[in-house]
């Protein structure tokens, strides 16, 4: 029967109830065979003039063919120009929507996906994430940058072509603040990093590990909100994703690709989101008590009123079962 | 262009960006003509033996025909038997999934919906909510009860037949805690209720009002997370939904039906969730600084990685536009 589990970082309770398993996979969408080139797609090889100007590009060695391109988002959620201009309106508070919204085009091919790419190609995507974050940190108006991916329409993608996004914001997002607070409180008590403790516990119990290499661990969190939710985290303490070392980028690409490949095989190429959570800009102390990580959320169930109303989650798949199934996939 | 707005209760920032309007209505699902009776539906008139035993029933005056029935949920997220048994497991914390999970069958007719019911019928549904909350408060293991509705499959409903649900939980949900904290902090500063201030501001500006009667106000919140999000709130301060007076139930039924009817007409019968937020059990002081209310969330856009990753929201419809459009509907 069900049990309640507490997320140690944000103190969020989750109901793990495997009896609800029948509700899985409601979100699956119709699939069409995709071609490597789509005429109307501005992200496809040959259509480069249909995007805003390139901010960053990585090319194949010894060739002019690009592998990864970064451009401004044509329909930005926040605009890059202007100042914040905080002001009151009636009893409420408001500021101008200043920020940066960029698109990382993962590949020139319309039908590609990270699960199917060469690891050296995935490495370039992560390098693009890192380089853009490092650059945006120089803009004093911003406090945070979120790197994320919406894979497939059900996960919120508006373009089919494989791409990632980043949004730099003038405030620290609420969810990140909650994680920072949890980690700081733990550090005050124990004088060590909470995520480092979680890594030790996961390696000790071996119950929830999906994949591992010298630098990274991929596991299903103890209080997973969603079925097959996965966390990828550096095994050596590191608070800020912008500080990832060059030699760590390939191992991250490797474990990300392997994890997404296992998800692809087990759940028949499900829609998913992933995000990178890292320390905010200009808060050096968080580098000590926070620990950057990626969160992968397959979109295989629907959120309903209970989740919206309470902020706690009903998860019909125990993370131990999810990890075992993902490990048992023959990739 | 976009702006950032702060929710005064939980300090959550929302990006209001009407340029994103094209993304609306992705969640719409195929509609079939529904009949008043479905043979395999356990909630339909005549199939009463297919549900768990009745906990509460309201019948038509001078007739044996039922209007609203409450039963236990056949597939509960939390079970009613047992004690909490909090315990550690490795470095993590856990407790048994104890709670109550009930179904309020809104109507004997399979094709009914609140937007189309008589107000006197909606009154009975709300009376059932109130009576069940009052009863569950007597169980000392529970700290909160969430009343909610998932309307249509896209909004998480697993049954087509019109119904609401409630879940009583042994902990105060995170989202409710955040609201309580915001209200308490405001009270400490100002010695008055924050929601009462919001009601005054909304009545003063008239920008976001959807409907109003002697007892209730229906409006689109200043920092709405979702397009056409609506709040229904008692105009006279009242912290605890369980304390709603008998003479207030009909006005609530009336404004709820009118609000949902306007949504139904404007957005072509969209999927939606609603929840009732009220004070937790056994916390009498919250009755002073908190203010119960209903939140209605039409499900007309998808959540994506940015929202999951940050906890702030991208809303492509300004609440002022939403309220005006809803007011202009000819019901």
UniProtKB/TrEMBL annotation, chains A, B:
Gene3D superfamilies per record: HIT-like (3.30.428.10)
Enzyme Commission number, as recorded: 2.7.7.12
Catalytic site: 163 (tele-ump-histidine intermediate)
Domain Galactose-1-phosphate uridyl transferase N-terminal, residue spans: 5-173
Iron keyword on record: no
The keyword Transport is assigned to this record: no
InterPro entries listed in its UniProt record: ADP-glucose_phosphorylase, GalP_UDPtransf1, GalP_Utransf_C, GalP_Utransf_N, HIT-like_sf
Binding-site residues, Zn(2+): 41, 44, 110, 161
Domain annotation Galactose-1-phosphate uridyl transferase C-terminal: ranges: 187-304
Co-factor binding details: Binds 1 zinc ion per subunit.
Gene Ontology terms, MF aspect: UDP-glucose:hexose-1-phosphate uridylyltransferase activity; zinc ion binding
CC cofactor: Zn(2+)
Pfam families, per the entry: GalP_UDP_tr_C, GalP_UDP_transf
One Gene Ontology term from the biological process aspect of the record: galactose metabolic process
Lineage: superkingdom: Bacteria
Keyword annotations from UniProtKB, A to Z: Carbohydrate metabolism, Metal-binding, Nucleotidyltransferase, Transferase, Zinc
Family the UniProt entry places it in: Belongs to the galactose-1-phosphate uridylyltransferase type 1 family.
Protein's name in the database: Galactose-1-phosphate uridylyltransferase
């Amino acid at each position: 029967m069900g049990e309640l589990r507490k997320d140690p970082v944000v103190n969020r309770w989750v109901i793990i109830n495997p009896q609800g398993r029948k509700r899985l996979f409601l979100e699956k969408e119709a699939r069409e065979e995709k071609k490597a080139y789509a005429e109307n797609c501005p992200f496809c090889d040959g259509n480069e003039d249909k995007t805003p100007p390139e901010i960053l590009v990585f090319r194949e060695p010894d060739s002019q063919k690009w592998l990864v391109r970064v451009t401004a988002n044509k329909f930005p959620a926040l605009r890059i120009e202007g100042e914040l201009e905080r002001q009151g309106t009636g009893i409420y508070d408001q500021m101008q929507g200043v920020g940066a919204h960029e698109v990382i085009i993962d590949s020139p091919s319309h039908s590609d996906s990270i699960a199917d790419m060469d690891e050296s190609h995935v490495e370039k995507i992560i390098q693009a994430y890192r380089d853009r974050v490092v650059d945006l940190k120089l803009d004093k108006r911003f406090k945070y940058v979120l790197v994320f991916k919406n894979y497939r329409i059900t996960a919120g993608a508006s373009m089919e072509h494989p791409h990632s996004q980043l949004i730099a914001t003038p405030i620290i997002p609420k969810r990140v603040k909650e994680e920072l607070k949890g980690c700081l409180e733990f550090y005050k008590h124990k004088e060590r990093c909470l995520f480092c403790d979680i890594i030790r516990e996961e390696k000790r119990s071996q119950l929830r590990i999906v994949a591992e290499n010298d630098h990274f661990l991929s596991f299903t969190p103890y209080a997973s909100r969603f079925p097959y939710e996965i966390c990828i985290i550096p095994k050596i303490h590191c608070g800020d994703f912008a500080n990832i070392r060059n030699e760590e980028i390939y191992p991250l690409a490797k474990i990300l690709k392997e994890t997404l490949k296992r998800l692809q095989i087990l759940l028949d190429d499900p829609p998913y989101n992933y995000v990178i959570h890292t320390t905010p800009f200009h808060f050096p102390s968080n580098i000590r008590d926070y620990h950057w990580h990626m969160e992968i959320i397959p979109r295989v169930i629907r959120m309903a009123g209970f989740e919206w109303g309470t902020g706690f989650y009903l998860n019909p798949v125990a993370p131990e079962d999810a990890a075992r199934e993902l490990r048992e996939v023959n990739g």
